[in-house]
Amino acid sequence: MAKALNLSPSTSTLPLSSSSKYSNILKTPTTLSFPFSRHPNSLTIKSSAATAIPISTTSANQFRVDILSESLPYIQKFRGKTIVVKYGGAAMKQPELKASVVSDLVLLSCVGLRPVLVHGGGPEINHWLKLLNIEPLFHEGLRVTDAKTMEIVSMVLVGKVNKDLVSLINKAGATAVGLSGMDGRLIMAKPTPNSAQLGFVGEVARVDPTILQPLVNNGHIPVIASVAADELGQSYNINADTVAGEVAAALGAEKLILLTDVAGILENKDDPGSLLKEIDIKGVKKLIDEKKVAGGMIPKVNCCVASLSQGVRTASIIDGRVQHSLLHEIMSEEGIGTMITG
Fold first, then answer.
1. For the whole model, what pTM was predicted?
2. At what angle do helices 122-131 and 147-154 cross, to 10 degrees?
3. What residues does the Aspartate/glutamate/uridylate kinase domain cover (predicted)?
C-alpha cells in the first residue's frame, strides 16, 4: 500500500505500515518526521514507545526521494483534474485541523490539481445569533431561517467565514478567490418544498460555472459560501453538501470529497471497525433501504449519488477530524474514508 504524505510548515510525518520497507528499523513503527531544510542533519523516527531513532543524512535524503517517487502516480493521475472539497464539521472549529486543510489544498494546487472549496459555517452562525440574542431554531435537522436570520447567515458565511478562509489560503502561498452563489449567478436558488416551516432555506435550481472556469484554469482556488439567490434576488441558505455536489457536477470534477465528523460509511453504524473503503451506488442504496445508513449521513450519501449520476467520477466521505485527511485520501492507494463509485 502506498504511503501518504503528511505535511506541516516545519516538519513532515509519514505513517509507516508493517509492510513498509523502512519498518525493519523499528520495533513499533508509527510516524517518521523530518525538518524541511536544505541540509538536514538527521532524520528522526518516533515509535509508539516515544523513542527517537536518528538516521543519517543520506538515509534522510533517500527517504524524501522515496516519498516523492511514491507520490508520483497519484500526482500524475489527478494533475489537471478538478477536485471539489466540502469543508465543514470539526475541521472548521479546531485551528490545527483548519491549518491542515489549508496546507493540503495549497499542496494539491502546487502539484497541479485544481481544488475548489465549498463551505458552510453552522457553528459560527450559531455563535453570532447568540451574540445578537437570536435563538437558533431547527426543523428536522435543518436551520429555520427567517428574514432576520438570513441576514446574519449571509453576513457570517460570505463576509466572515469565506474571507477568513481566503486569507488563510493566500497566506499559505496559493491564490484563493472568495465567492458566494450570488456572484456571477454561480448558483440559482429555489425554495425548498417545506419552505413554510423552514423559511429561506433553499435548494440548488442550477449552477452556471462560467465564473469558475477561468479561476480554476489559471490555478486559483475558488472558495464558495453556500448562500445563493433566486430569480427575484431573494437570498437563501443552502446545505453546503448539496452545493458542493452540484458544483462538482457542473465542473465535470474528477472527485467530490466531503469532510465530515465520521470515519466514513459504516456497514454497522455501531461498529467503528466496519468502515467500507469502497462501495458503488447500488450498494449505498441498499444500505439506506436496510437502514444501515441513517440520520445525517443520508443527505451526504444522496449528495454523492446525485453528483455521480451527473458525471463526477468518484465521491468520498472522509474523516475531517484526522489531520491531512485530504492528502491521505488523494495520495494513497486505500484512502482514508469511503469512496463511492458510479
1. 0.81
2. 120
3. 81-319
Phi, psi of 187 (to 5 degrees): -130, 130
101-138 pLDDT, tens digit each: 999 999 999 999 999 999 999 889 989 999 999 988 88
Q: CA angle at residue 149 from 199 to 186, to 5 degrees?
A: 75
DSSP-derived letter for residue 41 is: S
Rg of the chain taking only CA atoms, in angstroms: 21
- Chain-centroid distance of CA 318 in Å reads 8
Residue 108 DSSP symbol = H
* Grid cell at residue 106: 495549497
Q: How do residues 208-259 score in pLDDT, each as one tens digit?
A: 999 999 999 999 999 999 999 999 999 999 999 999 999 999 999 999 999 9
What does the angle CA 162 – CA 156 – CA 248 come to, to the nearest 5 degrees?
Answer: 45
CA angle 240, 329, 164 (to 5 degrees): 45
> How many Cβ atoms from other residues are within 10 Å of residue 206's Cβ?
11
Closest by CA to 153, choosing from 239, 245, 244, 95, is: 239
Q: 33 - beta bridge partners?
A: 13, 44
Terminal Cα distance for the chain, rounded: 24
Three-state DSSP class for 320? coil
If residue 279 lies in a helix (H) or strand (E), which one and from where to where? strand 278-280
What CA–CA distance (Å, rounded) separates 200 from 133?
20
Q: How many C-beta neighbours within 10 Å does residue 116 have?
A: 26
Place of cell 502561498: 173
CA distance 125 to 300: 21
Burial class of residue 45, CB neighbours in 10 A (0-12, 13-18, 19+)? buried
- DSSP-based three-state secondary structure for 188: strand
Burial class (CB in 10 A: 0-12, 13-18, 19+), 20: middle
Reference 190, options 136, 235, 156, 149; nearest CA is 235
